[in-house]
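Escalation from tier 1.

The customer reports that the assembly of two entities below gives different structure tokens on two consecutive runs. Tier 1 could not reproduce it. I'm attaching the input and our single run for tier 2 to review.
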Amino acid sequence: MSACLQTIQDYALRSIGIGERLLPRSDFTLCEQVVLIGSGMIWNIYFGIFALVIGFFLATGLAVAKGAQNPWLRKPAEWFIFLFRGSPLFIQFFFAYFLFLNLKSNIEFFDPFTAAWLGALIVLFLNTAAYSGEIFYGALRSVPKGDVEAADAYGLTGWTRFKRIIWPTMLRLAWPAYTNEAIFLFHATTLVFFSGFPAWQQRGDALYYASYFADKTFNPFVPYPILAGYFILFTLVIVGVFGLINRRLNQHLPGEARAKFKFRPNLLR
Amino acid sequence: MFSYCVDPDSLETLAWLSCYLTTGVHMSFYMAFLKVLGLLAVTAPVALGFGFLGAMAARSGFGPLRWFGKTYIAIVRGVPDIAFFLFFVIALDQALEWLRHKTLCPDWDMPIRQGNDFIVCQAAKLPAGSAPEWIHETYGFALAVITFAIVFGAFAANVLFGGMRAVPHAQLETAAAYGMSQRQTFWRVLVPQMWVYALPGLSNLWMVLIKATPLLFLLGIEDIVYWARELGGTKTSRFTDYPHGDWRMWYFLALLVFYLAFTKVSEIALEKLMLRLTHGQATTGGEAQRRAAS
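Tier 1 run:
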């Protein structure tokens, strides 16, 4: 027990460079595996939350642009969404990493971009913006005609009409699908350290440590289930938090009319 | 490849490129694209087969079989993505070696797991240590195909299960009223009609499968990602006739374009298929076609 407490002290924040420098090399205990993989989760949560929050705004913009009449707005949004949804995230990571590497050798400004914390975050941000943008665009097209007509009748126009009527309804309609997007963005964060971006001083994410243990012990039956456990736990947290928001978005509606969340796993991207 | 490629240093840009892009290693790179297409061509039907069996099991009247089908679907769908790929390849490899070990070396008395090592007798090694290189490669590729099929099979099972349930119940009742047996109803009425309901889900799955192929790299296959990293890296004139700087960015750009084109072509083909399948069906799609024709 006390050995495990010591391990927690040494490794709980290892993934952000606090604590013991050397990773365990032999005689791996279950405690070490649980703590170190859990420590890696910090990165997954960091990537997940930031990409999702920043991506949300770009996604709204993309959805509006894709639904616009003006081809100068519509075409770029369509291409952006196709570019990021039509190609594997894995390749996007690789391309972005080497692109930043090239830029870095010419312009000093791009120095931090080759590090995972910024470079990978940018890719994830653009990627989730494209996926959520498509979801929001679909929802935007299903906003009931009557809602918009009612808004017109009240004399709401332009930005006010969008902010007060269209946008909340769009969010309400899109929310169940958006919850799935959030879950799978979170799962996709595991790709970061397998795709070019180096884990500096072995500061990696949960999958990085899980595969470290699997490689060292030749036993995949311990680290990967631990990893799966963590992910299922955090998936439940996401479902819970998004469920609360969904309740708030739907609070004016009677029970049956509310959109229900349905877990639709969509492997990889 | 071309006769003028003997002395690359003296060539103009275009001629130089034409020589550079047809070197032996680049041929391996192009072969890797075929590998990806091959993986898709093999995996898609196998996964569909797994999915069909899974869906049949999940709606079976026999309890244990139904639970097996539902558990298979639930477990694979519930666990995060690439962890599954990394896990399955080692797990399958060890399971196969363990089985062979049990049958081939019955009088082996040491434990298989010694601390951090997984040790089986020499005869049980897969593939055999003396096997030629191509067997090793084929074995790795086969493991990858099985892994892909298991994972995507679960997703396909879920889609097909939904498709089977979406077929209007009246159709099945009519079949029963005509005196068809359960089996006849299944094969003659349910299966031909379920595809149109399953196709949107299946085409989505196909897109995801295309985008999952770069993960072959993680499974240790020499695929396009491997070659792009290999070929794009900085080459000095000491080791090659075609020295260049860090071109990995351009190689990955090429991969990006390849995948985008592939996705676009698939989209168009699936759209065509959907048109054919909805023909004459009692759905809005079929109705629209009927209206357009008359």
